[in-house]
Amino acid sequence: MIKQRIKKLAVMTSGGDAPGLNACIRAVVRTAIFNKMKVIGIQHGFEGLMSGDFIPMDANSVSNIIQLGGTILKSARSEQFKTKEGRLKAYKEIRKENIDAIVLIGGDGSFEGAKAFIKKHDTPFIGIPKTIDNDISGTDVCIGYDTALNTAMQAIDKIRDTAQSHERIFVVEVMGRDSGYIAYGAGLSGGAEAILVPETKADDNNLEQILRQGWNRNKSSLIIVVAEGDESGGALKVADTVKKHMPSHYVGVCILGHIQRGGNPSAADRILASKFGFEAVEALLKGKQNCMVGLKKNEICFTSLRQIKRHHLDINNHLLKMLTALTN
Ligand code: ATP
Fold first, then answer.
1. Does the pTM exceed 0.90?
2. Where are the domains of the chain?
3. Which CATH superfamily is domain 146-261 in?
4. What residues are annotated to the active site?
5. Closest atom of ligand 1 to CA, residue 82
6. How many angstroms separate the Cα of 201 from the Cα of each of 102, 139, 241?
7. 167 CB under 6 A from ligand 1?
8. Does ligand 1 lie within 6 Å of residue 8's CB atom?
9. Per DSSP, what are the bridge partners of residue 39?
10. pLDDT band at 309 (very low <50, low <70, confident <90, very high)
11. Which of 59, 131, 141, 256 has a CA 20 to 30 Å removed from the CA of 147?
């Protein structure tokens, strides 16, 4: 652990946006200022790091943002940063601006970028995990997941009103190309009859059985939640399958899409983002670097960026048993 005086700290957001980024930026800026550091914001993710798109930040520049979705620093994806020439360009801008350390609020892709950078260059990074997909190792929960989950759950509640009144089947598609966290959480909290996630194999027969069982039990509505990346092919394909099995029923489809990324962050996300922002700066002050702050079993923890990878929902037998019992 190298302890060095950090005079100037930079903060950036990278990858897809998620509710809670602004609360996190605020916490980083305020904690750094409290500790007498200068702070700058890097705009547009790694693109802005390479082009020197920096703005000075003070306590006022993060006023009234804790409740806002999106990111005041903007976010972007960058192909150029994947090249060593791009990363060298970024390093030159960092040296020109005298940046001593960078707080990177990003997903697993952004951390791959930081890993590639620190192999060659000596600017320390601290990562803060954000993604509505909640699929980053080294933490039980990422900024944005709770809000996205609540958005999806509330949508299911609303769809259920119509499903119930008209005795219909609805297939609701939620985000998650490789991750079933939103589908699992929204399905469980929304009382869905079936939950289809990318981590398990789709089983048409099983789906038919679940639906028939529900209908035979005189349920007046059935909700199927499917993650966009589930191998069944998403909500439209699932609806076709259901129609084939139950041709006399109306099968509605609702694809929630990007509404899951936006909106005011939940209290849980604001608190998590505030804690992560504070702890990231505190860790740098204590000499920690090139690691990611996380929360495991409700305790703050740090994991080397080198060990961070994409993480998958653990569909174990116990979880399956619970889902079978509750969706019955
Ligand atoms: P999310 O997936 O939640 O949107 P993310 O941080 O995973 O967030 P990505 O688009 O995967 O988002 O990555 C963000 C940026 O990180 C990329 O646009 C690219 O600039 C950089 N990056 C990703 N992988 C690498 C890599 N292997 N080497 C260098 N840079 C990378």
1. yes
2. 8-144+265-307, 146-261
3. Phosphofructokinase domain (3.40.50.460)
4. 133
5. 29
6. 40, 26, 15
7. no
8. no
9. 9, 57
10. very high
11. 59
